[in-house]
Amino acid sequence: KLHSDLDKGVGTVKYTLSGDGAGTVFTIDETTGDIHAIRSLDREEKPFYTLRAQAVDVDTKKPLEPESEFIIKVQDINDNEPKFLDGPYVASVPEMSPVGAYVLQVKATDADDPTYGNSARVVYSILQGQPYFSIDPKTGVIRTALPNMDREVKEQYQVLIQAKDMGGQLGGLAGTTTVNITLTDVNDNPPRFPKSIFHLKVPESSHVGSAIGRIRAVDPDFGKNAEIEYNIVPGDGGNLFDITTDENTQEGVIKLKKPLDFETKKAYTFKVEASNLHLDHRFHSVGPFKDTATVKINVLDMDEPPVFSKPMYTMEVYEDTPVGTIIGAVTAQDLDAGSSSVRYFIDWKNDVDSYFTVDATEGTIATNELLDRESKAQYNFSIIASKVSNPLLASKVNVIINVLDVNEFPPEISVPYETSVCENAKPGQVIQTITAVDKDLSPAGQRFSFRLSSEAPNKPNFTVHDYRNNTAGIETRRNGYSRRQQELYFLPVVIEDSSYPVQSSTNTLTIRVCRCDSDGTIQSCNVEAIFLPVGLSTGALIAILLCIVILLVIVVLYVALRRQKKKDTLMTSKEDIRDNVIHYDDEGGGEEDTQAFDIGALRNPKVIEDNKIRRDIKPDTLRFPRHRPTAEDNTDIRDFINQRLQENDVDPSAPPYDSLATYAYEGNGSVAESLSSIDSLTTEADQDYDYLSDWGPRFKILADMFGEESYNPDKVT
């Protein structure tokens, strides 16, 4: 309830409420100030509310007092039962554990206020699972309540746990959960054979390493605690058998170590021991964790194939032995009670087996063809022996026949040697080591001797030194050799073997004389090198030849370029006749200045004029009579000019561009006729050129050139 001191009870004050839950959870009477809850409250949802209240004037709506804040706390009641948030639980404990062994701790949560009353104080108890387990009422720790609980008796336990608030008092709320407890295995039980004697029957034809029977010891434990190891106790017959453990079934698998023979022994007896691999020292007092049983094996008689007297036969025969010669025999017997005769034959696989035959009754082996050790030194084949009474029962044996050598071939030098000797060699110097080969046997089984042939000269230049290890050295006997005197030497060497009869051969070594340096390194063995200058080495000669070749290449390139340049100049002079216009900075020599432009080229460019006199300078005192050109020359010039004119008309690159083509021919049809003195009938002596002096300094040169001079015909050559 809210009340203001200014409220006189006459209805002039109005109360307002704001804050958490105002209008939704709480409401206020505007006249009296009473606060009411309009719905149920849950402390677990919201434990307190913060509200603000104020008194205002009804008429003016103005606050009469400052706004005040207050808190409404929700008081807790026991309305929530304890809950196991992690349940149901799963736990395990080893079997045979003592009383009070820890199993698991459970925990229940109560949503009520733990600070107010006993609403949140929880007490634990067991509703189901006694007398095997107990629980601490305050902590919720579960422990074993009975000693020596055996997994082999009962493995799974289900325990029902209750948690009750209000301290377990009457009226408190409770919650439950389930705990599934499993007893884990320990090795508390030894293996035990279900019976003391095991009987097995085994055929004598069983293969070595094959399984012939199984026995099993029972262990009620689980997992690795039930793993069993089997062993054969040393005794009668135990050395013929072995036993291993099948990891999947934990059975003992008996295997055969050696072959059985009914005719030799018909029964075997031995003991087998079964024991655990993983022992627990806590249970040693119970007794030994192993058990023993007896195994009796009876061998069954079987119809067996013949048995050879040896596992393999090795024989020897000389090559070229006559066909039909007996070289050995194989023997097989039927060891069964009713002995049967045996037949022999070769196991044919390839054509090699045809070199031998075997007697079907006696088993003797004879040659069927002539043998050659050099072609094949060893033969390997199989012989089969079968019963006459039952041909399907057969056995096989391997036969190896070595062909012995007969000394047929002489030894020879192993490889063609390229032997050389230096000109500056000293006496006793080894220049070559030689070896030999023999087709009869490998070098490891043969001894060779080396010597100089009797065909050698009395005073040989070289000698042979036998090292007595199937090698020999070629040694020099002179102090220096000369290639100019003799380039090649031929040395006959005799090689003998040590077999009977002795075989020998003469082999000729070719020794070449070479030029060497002071260290004995060969520099040249060619014949041409003899005539080279002594003072020049091979590298110096190569450098000189290379320089000569480079100089020749430079000269050839220079000449080729000069020829190409001359050719281009000549072609230009012949092709550009029409552009041959000469310009002078002075007045020149007049009409007689035709040296720069040869008019003969217009008539016939191929004509070469001789004895031309330069006319671009002032002529000597000699006077030459002028000759009138013939009509034939004029015709040639006209044709040439017309031809050039036509070529220029059709040539797109020809004038009109800034170019001037000048020709000597002036054409026909002029009324004034030619103004040139070329066609004049008078000579230079008839002409008077004195008037040129009156034309001024520009014509001074012409006046000097054509002035009056005496003409002397005797000076004309």
From TrEMBL:
One of its GO terms (molecular function) is beta-catenin binding. It is a single-pass type I membrane protein. It is found in: Cell membrane. The chain crosses the membrane at residues 530-561. Cadherins are calcium-dependent cell adhesion proteins. They preferentially interact with themselves in a homophilic manner in connecting cells; cadherins may thus contribute to the sorting of heterogeneous cell types. Its main location: membrane. This is Cadherin-12. Residues 4-84, 85-193, 194-308, 309-413, 413-531 form the Cadherin domain.
